[in-house]
Each structure stands twice: as structure tokens, then as C-alpha cells.
Amino acid sequence: MPEADLKAARQVAKRCRTSIRDAAIPHETSEVSNSLTVSMGVATAFAADGGGPFSLIEKADRHLYRAKQNGRDRIVAE
Q1: Which among 4, 5, 14, 56 is least surrounded, fewest beta carbons within 10 Å?
Q2: Among 22, 12, 33, 31, which Cα is nearest to 75's?
Q3: Structural domain includes residue 1
Q4: Could you tell me if residue 15 is inside a domain?
């Protein structure tokens, strides 16, 4: 999302998570919930900060795994 800050990215993630939860898609084999849930790791980067796409993906991935460790069906964004 070009020009999006962390607050905007978190809001989009929340809308996605809510839409998936509201769809109530059955997930019969889940140990967490009877319906499909989603965990997300949100990260932002700006060209002026340096780094590149791989560091952004690594940061989002770390946040995703933290979300899963904290109980799933949640968003971690820092």
C-alpha cells in the first residue's frame, strides 16, 4: 500500500480479519475455532528508511509468527 503508515495498514488488516470472521467459513479440523480465522503480521517501510523489500517481508513474517504464538486470530503490527 504505497504511502500507507502503520495505522492505515493496521486498519486494512482489521477489515480483512473481520470480513473473514464474518464469513463464518467452517473449519472442522481446527483446534482454535469452528470457523476459519486469520492471523496477520503487519509491517511498514519507507524508501528513506533504507532496507528493501526483503527486510519488510522478514519484519512482517516475524509479526505473523508472534500473532500465532499469542493465540492466533489476531494482528501484530509494530
Answers
A1: 5
A2: 12
A3: no
A4: yes
Please give the tally of structural domains in the chain: 1
Q: Which residue matches cell numbers 467452517?
A: 26
Distances (CA, A) of 40 to 28, 48, 50, 63: 21, 25, 24, 7
What domain range includes position 59?
Answer: 6-76
Report whether 17 contacts 52 (CB < 8 A).
Answer: no
pLDDT of residue 61: 96
DSSP string over 17-32: HHHHHHHT-B-TT-SS
Residues in the chain with pLDDT values less than 50: none
SS3 35: strand
